[in-house]
Structure prediction request, 399 residues.
Amino acid sequence: MPPRPEADIDQVLQAALALVAANGLKALTLRPLAEKLQTTVSVLSYRFGRKDALLAAVIEAARDEDSAFLDLWLARIQAVTLLDGHRMADLADTVLDDMARQHTARNQFYCELLQGAVWRPEIVAPLGLWKARRLAFWRAATQGLNQPDLAEALHAYSTDEGAHGLALGDNAAYRWLRRLNLGRLCSGLSPDDGAADLELFTIFHAALGDLLGLAGDRYQASSMTDWQARVARHISGLIITEGADAVTHRAIAERADVPPSTLAYHFPRQEDLLRAGLEDVIVRLQGDVDRRPVSPPASAPEQSGVEIARATFAIALAATRMASLRGFAADMRRRRGENYHVQLRREAGGAPRFDLLAAQAMSITGIGQVILSGGLGAAEAERGFELMGRMQGAASEER
Prediction:
């Protein structure tokens, strides 16, 4: 078939989105892109530049498309005569639902870029402009509500929620939890009439666990031999740094220095590798929380918070392509905030001021800020905790 030299950036964007949706960001390379466009690598390079320039052009085109979407929603929000926290929560929920269910490919691309920026530095600058555009939308949307941190909170919250909305958006219990979380963010973390939404939260928090066959307890990791646990540590490291799609038997065998045949015997499928790696992160985080002293130090949180944020974000994205991971992603989403609630309870010396619903809303926001920060160290975790701290401070002033 002859090449199509007249492919414009919109055609390139749609082809790129299809490749990423099917196989993750790693699939977005010149040759598969050229084949999908029925052209050649040389033609693409001539028209749009080499790999980094072409990727920047694709990101810019996606950002422009997203900007038109955000402008449409901003006009609707600004047309609301009496905009208060409750209406803002409903509108934010609808925007996120529209992103996940009607504009799936573009939002998956955005999430994949957020994940990939850690190990692909050429993404950082063009992605930064896209992140700034989304933050500007939330600032304009919340203008006049007299809640200084709400725009940043919604920007961060929508970032972590974006990946889970892609994986779980067709699940009613998930959508209820998202709606309840947004209600707390926009209308008060500890409202006087919180009993009603807390009751709904308890119901749908349990219901989301049905996808993994759980009720109300925390996920219990499977028992592993010392050998499996050692390999799982290598798997979790790759998930955290490069995402779930980077986890293959060949990659893990090389990192762990084990024979591929032995690895395949213990972990036959890619899903088995992913499950072992994520369980390693969860076990380490739960152990850290359980050992944390009653009066935790004021220093930056341990890197485990960044690990769990990036690992579960990666698993949610992988679940869009691997149905067998949806239950796992659902359990990770519903458990958001449980460890943070433990910390709040210890800091309060008993019953905390904020219930589990508020802790979940803050935790998702903090995790989203970690993802936006685009790194792996304590500084990224600190940014998430700073935002949560400001949210708690604002809630205290309101009361």
Summary: The CA atoms of residues 302 and 378 lie 6 Å apart. The longest helix spans residues 51-78.
